[in-house]
Amino acid sequence: MSRKLFVGNLSYNTxxxxxxxxxxxxxxxxxxxxxxxxxxxxxxxxGFVEMQSEDDARSxxxxxxxxxxxxxxxxxxVAQPKPAGAGAGGGGRGNYGGGxxxxxxxxx
Length: 108
Fold this sequence. Notes:
Layout: E1 4-8, H1 16-23, E2 29-36, E3 43-51, H2 54-64, E4 68-69, E5 72-73, E6 75-78
Antiparallel strand pairs: 1-3, 1-6, 2-3, 4-5
C-alpha cells in the first residue's frame, strides 16, 4: 500500500492547512496539496495527502473516508499513479507566424 492518498469532493474553500489539520488527527503527515486551477487559483475539488507511514495511511482511509470537511463529505482513497500520457494535452500550438498564403510583390 502507498502512503499517498487521494482526497476527493473537497469544498472550494478547503485549504492545505485545514486538510492537514484533519489528517494529523490520525497520524503524522509528510505533505498536503490541494490541486488548483492554473487560471483562477480556485481549488479543483481534490487534493493529495502523504502520510508518514503506510499504517497511518490505512488508518486515515478507515477513519476519514466519507466524513465531513468544510460542509462536504470527502472521499479518501489510495492515490493511483498517473496513467501514461495523462496531462500531456495542450499540444499542437507550434509557431504561428500568422498570415501567409500567396504573397506577391507589390505592383508599382
